[in-house]
Amino acid sequence: SMEEGIAKANKSSYGLAAGVVTKDLNVANTVARSIKAGMVLINCYHMGAFDCPFGGYKMSGFGRTFGLHGLDNFLQVKSVVTPLFNSPWH
Predict the structure, then answer these.
(1) Aldehyde dehydrogenase domain: which residues (predicted)?
(2) Domain residue ranges in the chain
């Protein structure tokens, strides 16, 4: 059953990628949301794009490469606050 498949997939210590083969899009979306994996491929294999974040769950690592999430490892957020004298709200 779908529930057994999800349970087996999530029982693994790893979670880099998972695959779902089905003709039912509702089943595909339910399984994809339920499986703890960094990438879920539906009716295809090895079709990631460079703008899709890629990384694993659990023992398959952490962090993301590619896409906007991949840039987070190289960025630092900074807030700069400067009073604006003679502004309408001062």
Answers:
(1) 2-80
(2) 2-74
